[in-house]
Amino acid sequence: MLRYKAFAQNATYISYRDKSIEKQLGYNLEDYVKTKSMLRLQLNGNARHDDSVLNDFQLEIQKIKKIQNPNKGIHLKFGKKTAFENVIRSFQICKIEDCATYAPDGYDFWVFPYHKKIKLKESISCGKF
User: Fold this and answer.
1) pLDDT, tens digit (0-9, with 9 covering 90-100), for 73-108
2) Do residues 74 and 57 lie in contact, with contact meaning Cβ atoms separated by under 8 Å?
3) Reduced to 3 DSSP states, what percent helix, strand and coil does the chain have, rounded to the nearest 5?
4) CA angle 77, 78, 84 (to 5 degrees)
């Protein structure tokens, strides 16, 4: 059972924005968002509308990943009447689509589906240890 990871947890983990870490880094979410081209989508609490928006949300994530553009992001805005299940669904979509970065912040959900991978030079070994 351990070999087949029968006890593995595949739950969605939600971590909220930590402004103290931003202070340490000297860079905040607002500054980062300004460097991106953002698509804005909004949920309003209407089941039919929100379902359509979440479908578009998933398609846009797929498009951004397909063209491999690290300068594009999605700003999903939750309304006060947005169903909790749709908030969770948005996180699940990010997990399913393997988004590079996503950050919830109050009623805002910032998603950056693709980032450039930086290749590090291999270190040179100078002998045996």
Assistant:
1) 999 999 999 999 999 999 999 999 998 888 888 899
2) yes
3) 35, 15, 45
4) 150
Give pTM, 2 decimals. 0.75
Contacts of 61 (CB under 8 A, 6+ apart): 74, 93, 94, 97, 99, 111, 113
Q: Alpha helix (H) ranges present in 5-83?
A: 19-25, 29-34, 47-67
Identify the CA nearest to 86 among candidates 36, 114, 47: 47
Strands (E), the chain: 37-42, 72-77, 101-105, 108-112
Write out pLDDT tens, residues 24-45. Answer: 878 788 888 898 999 999 999 9
The answer to whether the beta carbons of residues 112 and 35 sit under 8 Å apart is: no
